Amino acid sequence: MNVRCFRVEKLIRDKIPALLESKGISVHTKVLEDQEFISRLKDKLVEEAKEVLEASNSNEICEELADVMELVQTLSKACGLSIEQIEQRRLEKRETKGGFEHQIYNSSVEIQENNPSITIYLNKPQQYPEIESYTY
Hints:
The protein has a domain of 83 residues: Orthogonal Bundle (Helix Hairpins), CATH 1.10.287. The chain is built from five helices and no strands.
């Protein structure tokens, strides 16, 4: 019988190797150093956030958000942050900038060239591409 090998190249949960091996799957792993671990946690957070986007019902959304929360907790710990610190920052931002309850969507901004805040947009052209004036 031929054996086939597949590249995975991602951070996995701690019990996954044993679960796969119990199914007859050989798993090749390594333990990451701290900085690479943090980098891979960030990659995994993006992966899980994309899975939230793909979720089509509340059960799937719940499942994917649970993964996101696990990653937030692990990443915060790896960076020397407590959940309480993050919650405090969340509350501070909510106080100064608000939450998302009002469902406000920003389609574009118009800004004078001499406004110092224009650098926010000019420094991130991929995130904020310049367009012709927006019409509603």
